[in-house]
Amino acid sequence: MASAGACYAATVDVEPTADALYRAVRAYGRDAVAFQGLEPGLAAWLDGDAAVAYADTGGAWIAAGGPCAPLAQRPEVAARFVAAARAAGRRASWFAVDEPTPWPGFARLRLGQQPVWDPRAWPATLAAHRGLREQLRRARAKGVRVRRVDAADVADGTALRAALEQLTAAWLAARHMEPMGFLVTLVPFARAADHRYYVAERGGRVVAFLAAVPVPARGGWFLEDLIRGGDAPNGTAESLFDAALRDLAADDVGYATTGLAPLAGDVPGWMRALGRVGGALYDFDGLHRFKRRLHPAGWEPVWLCYPEGEPAIVHVLDGLRAFAGGGLVAFGARTVARHPGALAWVLAVPLMPWALALAVAAITGHAGWFGYRPATLGAWAGYDVALAVGLWRASRRPTPRLLGLLAGAATVDAALSLVHVARVGLGAGPALPARLAATLAPLVGALGLWWARRRARAPR
User: By three-state DSSP, how is residue 199 classified?
Assistant: First the structure.
């Protein structure tokens, strides 16, 4: 690596597949996400023979893992990256750093943890866990067979590539979550020669595949993309994982991971609380459970690193904007439009304080604002509490039946509210906004829930 005086620092306005970044990743990439810095959509910052791949959100540069530099020099490269970002009017942080040693001058926030395996010990792990063996047996009994394929087999224009792209498109279409960018961009065939691919077939037809990328400085592999068709039998994912670890063990590879499980492990309480609130939009617990049931040999903490003295929440929001590919509000709106459970969540969150407001109005003698007697308003508050509980359940498991029941309940609420306001009028003063909200909210909610039910019934 060049000396500090000889190094240069510049943003490269090309895709991060540039040779300089590629060489730095292959030489120094030690974080599980290092190779993802070569994927489309990121920029590259170069510092001698070191490099940083990052997303520019307009307010911040969010790096994909730590600097691709010799381990001892990563802190000083990180400091120069901060200086370059500030010169460009940006904040700087590093997302998904798995280096255990803190960098001088930098704070870090635990984002979650990632599971790790020694592929050479996988047969012993399999022998110790009957559940894993049973999943593999189920897949075999259903005719699932897994094979490794070469980059040439998935080259553009091949029949296998077409089948895998069709499977990927169907998988994406079936997701409730709005597609994200940054470290979760789905581009499994970029730099295919550096990947390992494993394909699960049943009756000669592809039902799932796994793509792995190297973690060069650790001599290991990140099992990055596991795409499973809706008709893949139980045990297919485990079969792909089993084939990959056995193949890595045959090459004497001692490190493998499936990457970050966000909010898993000893994360700050405020982050865990946010995860519970947003669980309807992203199943953090489900992802952790899937990784855990593969019985990793251990778990490594994964960090968000940022300059000391700056607020952690600002850098968390910067990272979220990088994943959202822009504004968080617009991303949330697109997710609500795709996800039948998201609308239930949007309705559930304000319904509880609304029910509390009704109860308080009934108790304090302000039921007249709504045109009801106190006892009737109290009963209405109880009804809304029950509806909010149902909406919260639907946000976690948006089944057509539950969404239909809730849509029916909201429709009844809307109809009774319309009849009531037609009888007593909208009133004036504080009564006017109270009665408008009480009339319009259930009407909008009912229409949204009927739409969500239709969305949940669509083929997936």
Answer: strand
